[in-house]
């Protein structure tokens, strides 16, 4: 059986606000409190941390908190989607804001070095458009590519991962699908930019996450991944395995088949749930998937896929996952 | 030509937060500032106000601000979707919170009386469920009906309107469609509960807003309406007329055909736009629709609809709306 | 353990055409051949048969074929969605066609009597509209209600079930959701019209099938059901359990909880699969669900639902379904 | 004012079947009858023809029919999505069927030469998958690329265009989006394969058609286009301009801005409408769009887009399209 490493975005342990519950789904928490909650999850080893964080918490304090919880840092996610960047980070119409996005990301790069993390995680959620006629699509896409390409060139010692999503908070996000993101990365022409595949974003975008993973792997660009679940029509960030267990299984099947090695991360937003319980729930399911992969009849499945035999393939997968 | 009255939810003039831009899309505004902004819209006469509002603003101050801006109040929207009610208002599993929802709505009823408004607007956005197996659907729906039925009985002198929406912030909202809401209202057996039809919510739910309006009218329950636009897959609350001008036209055609008289309200969330300009934009389009209704060949359209002649009907509508 | 009866629409064993593969997904089959295929499914007891069928097959021949395959008839589905009714059956703009729809359905009623079946199954898939402005929504809905109400009054000894669906082949179908259908049935004011809940249609319409089942049961109108699966955005009619096993489990949990007794039917379209294997696949999964319901900790689940405790409820359901 | 050339797929003038109305939406028509109907459309100059067509119609007869209707051929669409190819054309698990797909496309290439047409139009609608675990995604995508790459190499004198679509008839189509298709074309490494952008397919896929057009142009691959309309959730192939006039306007704005020159084609399926009237309706709207582009304040719009000023840009577009 494989030895897995589990991770989570530190925001999994935050308190959320949205446009209705503007006073939040509970009392706000400090980054240190979030780290201590992450430490309570049974099998969590690594976290992804947003930066910059509140000025009253030092990097040293974060380090201490991580250490006492046996956590290390896999990535730093620069906050390029808050008020300052609400009209875009890399694609903001204001060149000064685009410069600021670059600075914030370079600061994140320094944190990656400081924490010995694996990458800067870029989620340009405000880069896109809302209305027909609002933008010059050629220019917007050019800025999308140049902004990240520049970062990669400035930091050749580091990796950058782009987490695409079809939309939200913009009505259209420029890095909206796996294929679009790979097109953009190819245009950058740098080796150190890859994709972080969010299982739920792929579902939301009408993709088969297993297919998207394979595509990124075949381009040598699957640098990271995380999981959650949704109803395919929005980024609900529900607990992994609660709605689409079979496609989640196919996703991890594809990763193992390709000998992809990396952290199995969670990107969940437990708005109304206990965040530690929600993480434990998901990790328990991921372990079940891992054990199911051990049980799977790989040769028979490959043969069924070779025939594109849907029923045959499903029977084999079902046997492993449901045990009948 | 008809004399129209235009209105807007006062939140049209707020600053928004969401789960990403937690520091907001701009500096926060007080209710008084929002009213003053509403006053700048060229043709706005009435507003819908959320309550309770910040304790440092008195009802008298609100009244003064409304008066100086020539605005009156059409409805009060009790805040039954913030932190306290994040697991539900009328359907909260905690009977104490359900009681609190009743109190907050009764307080809103008193404000309706104080302002001489038309109704209490109920938007039970947190009433619903997220996960399979989470709730007892029979009980949840019973609570949905009883909670509002009780309010109506407690305030027989007032009207209550339910604004349904398929989802957000819950993954499923119990008052999720026009038909479901009418079923619930019929079960209440009271005369003073009706529907506020949000054009965008109907589109989002896969309904034809014109059909939903007709259905509510035929049940004697179309007590209010508001408009906006979206991409049919989420409640984007974009500016009315920017994406679906033809269905918007059909919606108002249906209202006029039924001699429905009421305020043409806006429920828009201009996250990144100037809120006054966004309201003016929408109202200009609504005036164009009103003028197009004057130009419309009503008899020819009725004849085409009698034949269910899609091309014939569209030609007549197009002529009125686009002028060719 | 419960004794289940499994059924299927006879079209499960047909060869399909669509707008692209106009020469079909294989050679056409006669009704007798379809019945013989149905007979090969391991645990199938009842079928729903479309009528009228090809004139060269007599009722007696059908009876013989059913008998030799140990099959009985649960329902007759009149073909009110083919060329003659392509602009609507009950809502056709031509009164003569509406009369023809009535005749075809009365003929189906006679077959129900002849076969000792349970109901006439109405699927008015062509009743609806495509374009904005195409129809008078008031009239269309009135025709929808009157057409079926008339049938029910003409045949008080029989049951009629309406199978709603959001759309296809019309862009909007008038019986488009559970709540809308119940509203229509209430307006008919007859005891012998109910709903046939198609699991996939509910998913497609953004409903939770378990919630829709509960609603129909609470109105005393859940007369039948069938299952399949899809990607929530279209009526894919895939094999039950292959995409949404957890919501399928919740659906049957709701039926058993309410002591609903009836046939567990399949409504699948195995375009490219072996139809017998596809039925066996689904029935095997349904048996697994039935066994999981036996294993389920019902009291603990009721307690979790009483708290609306999503994580707690999911853990209990997961334990029963996945065995961990 | 620009001189436009209008075209249509010849299937616009066919009679359709679907999985319900298996006897068709009217009496079948011969290819010659379809051409004669195309000839009745007021401003139609070119058609795209499916091949092979019925053996009882010769190429010469087609040529004569085209001539008498003043029509020429823009493309030939090989029928690689009927029964023979129902499990895939380029990606069929059977190498013999893949070979057959190649033959059918080479036959189409010969017809392109014979008619002096512009391209072979490839719509691999059966190339994809339905169920989780059904296919080896790496292999499927490799076959998708190699199959078309081989065709392009065999016919270096001709152009091939790929018309992508998210799905239907497969639940997932391998050429499912603009970006995915461009990735595939880049992998082929040939100059003579491009994209045919179907406006409705882009909408259906959650794309902004204007953005997709710009992306294809920037890759030098926008070889063709066609228009229609839908409700964004399915390929409804409704009449262009009846639902999304503003995005249609933005699409043509983008084409003119880039000096893209080509035929404005229709890909509509008027199931229940008069096919000539449906084409005339669409072309009238396209002419209105063309005239609106003449009226548009291009400099002001560019300036607004430079600021990403949604309201400003919409006002300018609205002025041109609606005349107020």
Q: Which spans of chain A have pLDDT < 50 for at least 5 consecutive residues? A: none
Instruction: Provide the domain count of chain A.
Output: 1
Structural class of chain A: alpha/beta
Give the proportion of residues in helices of chain A: 40-55%
Radius of gyration of chain A: 20 Å
Mean pLDDT of chain A: 97
Considering the protein shown, what is the CATH homologous superfamily of chain A?
Divalent-metal-dependent TIM barrel enzymes
Give me some keywords for this one.
homotetramer; 324 residues; alpha/beta; TIM Barrel; eight-stranded parallel barrel; two-stranded antiparallel sheet; 11 helices; 43% helix; globular
Structural account:
- Four copies of one chain form a homotetramer.
- Chain A is 43% helix and 14% strand.
- Chain A has a single domain, classed as TIM Barrel.
- Chain A is globular and about 60 Å long.
- The model of chain A has no long low-confidence stretch (mean pLDDT 97).
- Chain A has eleven helices and ten strands.
- The two termini of chain A are 21 Å apart.
- In chain A, strand 1, helix 1 and strand 2 (44-51) form a beta-alpha-beta unit.
- In chain A, helix 3 (95-115) runs parallel beside helix 4 and helix 10 (298-306) runs antiparallel to helix 11 (310-322).
- The first copy, chain A, has 324 residues and is α/β, with parallel strands linked by helices.
- The relative contact order of chain A is 0.12.
- The longest helix of chain A has 21 residues, at 95-115.
- Chains in contact: A-B, A-C, A-D, B-C, B-D, C-D.
- The interface between B and D is medium-sized, with 30 and 30 residues.
């Amino acid at each position: 059986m494989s030895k897995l490493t589990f991770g989570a975005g530190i925001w999994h342990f935050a308190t959320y606000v949205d446009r209705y519950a503007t006073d939040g789904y509970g009392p706000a928490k400090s980054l240190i409190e979030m780290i201590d909650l992450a430490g309570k999850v049974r099998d969590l080893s690594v976290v992804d941390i947003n930066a910059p964080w509140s000025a009253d918490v030092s990097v040293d304090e974060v380090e201490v908190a991580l250490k006492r919880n046996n956590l290390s840092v896999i990535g730093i996610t620069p906050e390029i989607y808050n008020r300052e960047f609400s009209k875009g980070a890399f694609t903001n119409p204001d060149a000064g804001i685009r410069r600021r996005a670059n600075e914030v990301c370079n600061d994140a790069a320094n944190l990656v070095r400081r924490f010995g993390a694996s990458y800067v995680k870029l989620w340009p959620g405000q880069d896109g458009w809302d209305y027909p006629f609002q933008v010059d699509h050629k220019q917007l896409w050019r800025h999308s590519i140049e902004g990240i390409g520049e970062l990669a060139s400035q930091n050749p010692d580091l990796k950058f991962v782009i987490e695409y999503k079809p939309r939200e908070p913009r009505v259209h996000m420029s890095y909206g699908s796996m294929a679009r993101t790979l097109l953009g990365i190819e245009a950058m022409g740098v080796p150190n930019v890859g994709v972080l595949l969010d299982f739920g974003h792929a579902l939301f975008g009408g993709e088969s996450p297993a297919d998207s993973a394979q595509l990124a792997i075949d381009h040598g660009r699957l640098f990271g991944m995380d999981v959650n679940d949704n109803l395919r029509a929005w980024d609900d960030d529900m607990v992994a395995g609660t709605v689409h267990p079979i496609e989640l299984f196919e996703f991890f099947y594809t990763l193992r088949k390709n000998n992809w090695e990396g952290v199995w991360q969670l990107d969940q937003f437990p708005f109304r749930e206990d965040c530690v319980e929600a993480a434990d729930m998901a990790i328990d399911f991921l372990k079940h998937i891992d054990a199911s992969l051990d049980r799977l009849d790989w040769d028979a499945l490959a043969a069924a896929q070779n025939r594109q035999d849907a029923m045959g393939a499903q029977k084999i997968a079902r046997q492993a996952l449901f045990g009948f």
